[in-house]
Amino acid sequence: MASSSRTPKESVVVDYGRRRTPCGYCRSSRRNSISHGMWADSLTVDDYQDLLDRGWRRSGCFLYKPEMERTCCPSYTIRLKASNFDPSKEQLRVSRRMQRFLDGTLDVKKVDVLEDTSTSTKSENLSRPMTEESLPAGNEEEDEVGKSLHCLSSQIDNVIHILIEKGEFHSGIQLPKASVKKVSQGRRKLLVNGSEDLLYSSNIAFQIASSIKRAQSCEKVGNDLKPSKVCEKESESSPKIIAEKLVAPLDPMVKISGLSIRACNGHINFYASSEKISPSRSDQNVPVRNKSRMEHGTGGNRLIGPEHCQVKRRKLEIRLNRSSFDPEEFALYKRYQLKVHNDKPHTVTETSYCRFLVDTPLLRVSHTGDNRVPHCGFGSFHQQYLIDGQLVAVGVIDILPNCLSSKYLFWDPDFAFLSLGKYSALKEIGWVKENQVHCPSLQYYYLGYYIHSCNKMRYKAAYRPSELLCPLRYQWVPFNLARPLLDRKPYAVLSDFSILKNGESSLPQMTDDVMGRELDDAGQEDANDVPMLADEEMVESESEFSEDEPDPETTSYDDPEIGDVSKVLLGVKGSKVIYKDLRSVFDPEQRSYLESQLQRYRRVVGTVLSERMVYSIG
Predict the structure, then answer these.
(1) Residues 253 and 332 both lie in one domain
(2) Strand order from edge to edge, sheet including 267-272
C-alpha cells in the first residue's frame, strides 16, 4: 500500500551492490577488497545500530560491508562491553602519562629523544618505543625517586658553576660532580629528633673542600702567602661554609618542588616540606606532597611541583559537539594526514574531509528527559580534546542506542608522545560507562573492524574482553574463543568455535598475560597513529563503484525468507510502497532484474531491515 511523502524519521538507502577496490590494509595494487555498498540519504540510529550488528560501517553517508568469503582482508566487527573493560598495563601507563603531562611532571624532552632514537632503529613493524612509561609498573616509584635525585644533583652543579663565575670558588680547580642520595629509614632514626622528614642528602661540600685544600697546598709551596691569609682561606673553604654558600641559592628552587633544604655540618639535606602554598599562587591551599617531581626545561634540569608551579600545570578539556565543519578541526586534520599518513597536499581538501568525517546520514535524536536517551542525544559527534585551549585531537564518533561507535581520530603530531589514539579510546570507554546511568541500553564500545590477517589492526583486541561478530550467523563470540580459528585462516565462521576440542593440541595455548602483551605490542604505531578505521575508509570513500557481478553469493547460511522479496519496502518518487503492490507495473525482464537486486539487498541487510528501511529506486 502506498503512503504520502516520507517523514524525516526513516531510513532511505540506495543500493550500489558489489564493489571492488584496492585494499587499504594489505596495500595490494589489485582490486582485491570486495564489499557491498549503499548510499544513505537518511538513516535512523536504530537502523544503523542493527546494520553495525550485521557487519556494516559508514564512511560519511556511504555504508559498506565486506564480503567476508571473497575479500582479501576479512574484517570482523569488534566491540567491548564497557562495564567489563579490563585495562592492560600499557593502557594504564597511557592514562598516567597524560596525567603527569597535565600535572607538569612528564619529562617531555626525554620522551621525545627516546622516541626519536627508537624511530631511527625500528624495523618496518615499528615496534613501540621504550620510554619511561614502558618500565614495569612496580618500578615507577623507584624511577620517580631516581629522577628526583638526578635533578637535585644537576641543580647543585648549576649553582656551583654560578659561584665559580662569581669568584666564590677558584676557577682553576677541578670540582667533582654533585651526587644526591636517598636517606634510608634506618639512617633517619639514628639522627636527631625531627629528621623523620629527611629524604635526601649530599656530601658535595666535603668533596669541594678537599679539592680546594689540595689546591691551597700547591699554592703554599709555590707562593709565600702570609699565615693569616692561609688561615682565612682555609676557614672559607670548610665544608660547613661551602654547604651554606650552596644552600642559599638552592633554597628558592627547592621550595617550588615542595621540599625544604638546610646545611647541616657540611651536609646538604633535603626535607619533605609541610608548608602550604600561599593564596597568591593558587586559588586554594593545597598540601605539599612529600615526593618531589621534575621536568627538563629549556634552561636545563628544573625541579617542579604541580601543586606549586601553576605555570606548568595544564588543563585538559573535552568537548562533545554535533558533527559539523569546523575550520580549526580541518586545519588539524590536514596537518595530521600530511605528517602522519604522508598524504599529498592536493588530496586533503575540505570537500574530501567533509565527505569522510563531517557528512552523516544519521537522524538526530534529542534528549527527552527520560532514561532512554543520553543528555547529548543520539547521532554523529566530534569530540574535541583541548589542552590549555589548544585543539590537540578530534574523535569522530556515533552515539547509538546500544553503543558508542568510534569512527576516526586525528591529532596534532607534536603530541604523539601522549599516545592520543589509546587515550581517546580509554576516554570513550569511560564515557559509555558514565552514561549508562542516563541510558541503560548504552553498554558497548565499537572499535570498527578487527583484521587478524593485518598486524597493524590487531591492537584493537587489546581492549579486553572484546567480542567479534560471526560473519555468517551474526552472533557475538568472545575474542579468546575466536582467535584459534583466525590463527588458522583469515576467514572463519566464528560461531563454529565449539567444534574445537579443548583448543586442539595443534593450536598455541596462551595465558591472558602473554596474549595481552602480544596484542599491545602488535602494530603499536597504529594504536597511536591510526586508531579506529582510517586508511580503509579513505580508500573506499574515494573509490569507484563497480557494476554488479553475475556470479552468485557463496554464503552457506541463508535466511529461508531471503528469496521472498514481496515485503521489501521501496521508495518511488517520494512515496513508499511494498514490492508486492508494485510488482505488476514491471515487465517480466524488469521484474526479474529487480527481484535479483532485492534478494541480494535482503541478504546483506537482513529480513527485518529490508522491510523497515526504504529501498530507493528513483
Answers:
(1) no
(2) 181-182, 198-202, 267-272, 259-264
Query: In terms of Cα–Cα distance, which of 53, 93, 100 is closest to 77?
Result: 53
Which residue carries 602554598 as its cell? 277
Residue 220 lies in a domain: yes
> pLDDT-derived band of residue 510, with 50, 70 and 90 as boundaries?
very low
CB-CB contact of 43 with 11 (8 Å): yes
Sequence length of the chain is 618
Asked whether residue 420 falls in the same domain as residue 285, the answer is no
Report the distance separating Cα 201 and Cα 182, nearest Å. 7
Provide the domain count of the chain.
Answer: 3
163: cell is 659561584
Q: In this model, does residue 31 exceed pLDDT 60? A: yes
Residues 353 and 476 in one domain: yes
Least confident segment among 436-440, 552-556, 591-595 = 552-556
Q: Does residue 3 register a pLDDT over 50?
A: no
Cell of 518: 602480544
Q: Say yes or no to pLDDT of 554 above 60.
A: no
Higher-confidence position of 197 and 439: 439
Task: Please say whether the beta carbons of 304 and 366 come within 8 A.
Answer: no
* Secondary structure (DSSP) of 488-513: H-SS--GGGGGGSSTT-TTSPP--HH
Are residues 289 and 411 both part of a single domain? no
**CB neighbourhood size of 138 (10 A):** 7
User: Which of 12, 47, 10, 8 has the alpha carbon at shortest distance from 398?
Assistant: 47
- 144, 173: one domain: yes
For cell 580541518, name the residue.
330
Phi, psi angle pair for 87, to nearest 5°? -65, 145
Q: What is the pairing mode between strands 390-399 and 62-66?
A: unpaired
Looking up cell 564489499 gives 35
Between CA 256 and CA 264 the distance in angstroms is 21
Cell numbers at 360, concatenated: 552523516
Q: Are residues 265 and 390 in the same domain?
A: no
Expressed as residue numbers, the domain containing 164 is 135-304
Residue 562 in any domain: the answer is no
Q: Residues 47, 54: contact at Cβ < 8 Å? A: no
Residue pLDDT, tens place only, 574-592: 899 999 999 999 999 999 9
Same domain, 350 and 478: yes
Handedness of CA 418, 420, 425, 427 (dihedral sign): positive
Residue type, 223: N
Of 258, 273, 304, which marks where a domain is finished? Answer: 304
Residue 547's CB is within 10 A of a number of other CB atoms, namely 10
Could you report the per-residue pLDDT of 289-340, keeping only the tens digit for each?
Answer: 344 444 444 344 444 444 444 447 999 999 999 999 999 999 999 999 999 9
C-alpha cell at 527: 594504536
Task: For residue 375, tell me if it sits in a domain.
Answer: yes
Mean pLDDT along residues 475-499: 92
Boundary (domain end) residue, out of 281, 304, 327: 304
Instruction: Say if residue 371 is in the same domain as residue 496.
Output: yes
* SS3 of residue 555 by DSSP: coil
Please determine, for residue 1, whether its predicted confidence score (pLDDT) is greater than 50. Answer: no
The whole-number average pLDDT for the span 186-204 is 70
Helix ranges (H only) for 223-326 are: 227-236, 239-256
Q: Where are the alpha helices (DSSP H) in 341-443?
A: 350-353, 420-435
Give the strand pairing for 198-202 and 76-81: unpaired
3-state secondary structure 115-147: HHHHHHHCCCCCCCCCCHHHCCHHHHHHHHHHH
Cell 636545563: give the residue.
300
Instruction: Identify whether 22 is part of a domain.
Output: yes
